[in-house]
Amino acid sequence: MTVTSTRAKPEGTLPDRTGPAAPRKRRRNPLPYLLLLPAVLILLVDMGYPLLRQITMAFQHFSLEQQFGKPAEFAGLDNFTRVLGDSAFWLTLGRSLAFCLVCAALTMAIGIGGALLLTKLSRPVSVFVQAAMLLAWAMPVLSSLQVFQWIFDSRSGVVDWTLAGLGLQGMAGYNWFSNPLTFFAVAAILVIWMSVPLVVFMVYASVTQIDESMLEASTLDGANGWKQFREITVPTIAPVLLLVTILEIIWDLRVFTQIFILQKNGGITEQTNVLGTYVYQVGLSGGDYGVASATALIMLLITLLLTWRYVTQFLKQGEV
Amino acid sequence: MKELSRRGLLGLGGALGAAALLSACGEASGSASSDSLSTPAKLRVWFMKDSVSDKAQAWLKQEFENKFQGSTLTIEQQEWDGIVPKLQTALASPESTPDIIELGNTQAPTFCAVGALADLSGMKEELGGANLTKSLVELGSFENKMYAAPFYAGSRIVFYRKDMFQQLGLAIPKTIDELTAVATKIQTGNPEKNAHFSGMFLPGISSQSAFAWVFSNGGRLAVQKDGKWEGSLSSPESQKAIAQLQELWKTGSTTGTITDSTIGSQPYTAFNTGEAGMFFGFNFHLKKIKKELLDAGKVGYFNFPSPKGDSVGNPFAGGSNVAISNNSKARGLAKEALKLIFSKPFQEFFATEGGWVPGNLNYAAALGRDELSKVTIEAVRNSVGTPAAKNWALVESAKVVDDFFVAMGALKDPVGLAKTADAKMTEILNSK
Questions:
Q1: Which of A31, A82, B46, B220 could form a disulfide with B98 if both were Cys (CB 3.0 to 4.6 A apart)?
Q2: Residue B206 neighbours by CB distance under 10 Å
């Protein structure tokens, strides 16, 4: 990276601290901008270029032949009309939204509950629980996927074995991955299992920052636990809750690996597609990069729409 | 552990693929690649799992590196599952492309048509000419140019437990109906009183196995009419085959609902644990069968039967083509390596080590004259391939046919689902 600007000479050794009361014309110091430059460049190359490329491709007829060198033709809105006119897309969208909202809601509920529980535990137990959560969180997703597949395996899985042992009819050899509902149940358990620890950690960290005296005072005033939680805890940790919720929604909406790997064991690919795997299937497997890019853009828009309120609220709170 | 790394690789492939989709590095310029032999290069070769024996790999590496001092040849083993998207992204850029690649014969037409592969027409004679397996040459050609040469071929045969047949007084089935009857009798008999016992091990996810029923009845997966492709699972022939399959899954096999592709690709496992009386596998699976069973003379094999019993049935034509990536920076040296692959020693390794029928049929005699080789060659001779359509690989990776047979294994509605699958195939096969 070369910096061509020659104005990088440091002028003024001390930062200008005069307030607006002194209407002296001040020279702009270029140093802060220069310091920003690397970060901006990295962002541009890393995120800007792919995004730009994706937007271009969304308006092109771009298939395998183009991937191997044939020039791409401009497609106008063709790709978008094709996606929006495809009933499979709408089904996938509905499925994705439902999966995302259920997972995010359950993750938040379990995570907040876990964090509050953690504050009540004795120190050694709390450390043990945190260590266990950290392990669950740090486990590579492919390894946990493998373990989950073994647990739910139809021929030798412990779940089927237990359920059958309890006398439940038809559970011996039940194939969890060949029915969309049970498929998503297993996927949801896995996704929630992997994302709860982060929520617990973040909420726990912020809950422990709450002023003890405030809680004490409220107890004296006769507030019960639920009231304390609603009136003190939630407002205090609201910024953290908002941030984690946004992240959870974004992550759960673009879930890919878990579904993609489980699909290989299901044989019901189309009925279990979520947005991520749908884009992959249209684009990489189907060789239609234009339509896939258009779908990915639509997916981006949906994510923005879903999280818009939270993001603006979050920014507002950040200013306070 | 092997299992784990397999999935790891897969996931990685998926992740890389997704990353590549987002960053879309489509700058395939087919750059002026060096065709010279004097510049040393590091050749990367992608072979598929279970294709090329360790011995053959070592031989190729050594021969090549001896012949071209300073150059190296590295073989990277790939998994079948998810290979098409992986190739789509890897082959597209000179930086990421392997130089030599093995392509499943069903995938070859797609890559030949889109300009991903170097033209091999000029060296066709040198590689074997008229002795190259014809069906594989067809799948590896586009507009009369050969881009992917026949690598090897193989077809499934039925393995069975001789002792169980004897005990129940069963004869080798001559027709498909007899096969179902035999499977049913073994399953009901369950000689070893095994809880998971299946007369025949035939997972729903193993669609390539199920193709034998379709092809033997005269059905096809898709047919070409007036230049347009049409899915053909609804044809009376295919429907008859599916009825036979579902009959088998109802009475002679408990494995139709198996949807784990790993279990599906290892049909010998259930056989080894005494959980199956028969399985439909490749000749080289014999090596995976438990020694006690083999030593006790309990294992036999026969060709897939025909509907009427007048000939051998038509199993799926498995096999591969081998090609040079058009984006390779060392196409000259890659061609030299290809010549080594088509030389007598390497081709014979297919037969002697792998149990495949080599792409150059001149060397097929190396398979031997024993019963297993005879049955295998008979199976290959009668085998039928998937449609030689440019977009067939896309049908495969959209899992249209796989998912259809999984549903059949679960005994779902053959007529309605065949219609849906046909419509999807028709759409994909005729799209530009």
A1: B46
A2: 25
B115 conformational bin, left if phi > 0, alpha if psi -120 to 50, beta if neither: left
In order of A113, B109, B303, the CA distances from B321 in angstroms are 57, 10, 25
Looking at the predicted structure, is the pLDDT value of residue B28 above 90?
A: no
Any CB–CB contact under 8 A between A179 and chain B? no
**Residue B43, strand partner residues:** B73
- Residue for token pair 């998926």: B14
In this structure, which amino acid lies at residue B10? L
- Please report the ipTM that was assigned to this predicted complex: 0.72
- Residue pair B414/B242 in contact (Cβ under 8 Å)? The answer is yes
Tell me the pLDDT tens digit for each residue of B140-161: 999 889 999 999 998 999 999 9
- Number of domains present in the structure of chain A: 1
Architecture of domain B32-154+317-381: 3-Layer(aba) Sandwich (3.40)
Report if residue A251 sits inside a domain: yes
In the stretch 134-163 of chain B, residues with CB closer than 8 A to chain A read none
Q: Both tokens of residue B357?
A: 């029928």
Q: Cβ(B76)–Cβ(B372) under 8 Å? A: no
B403–A155 CB contact, under 8 Å:
no
CB B340 within 8 A of CB B346: yes
Q: Residue B416, SS3?
A: helix
Rounded Cα distance between B238 and B119, Å, is: 36
pLDDT (0 to 100) of residue A24 = 56
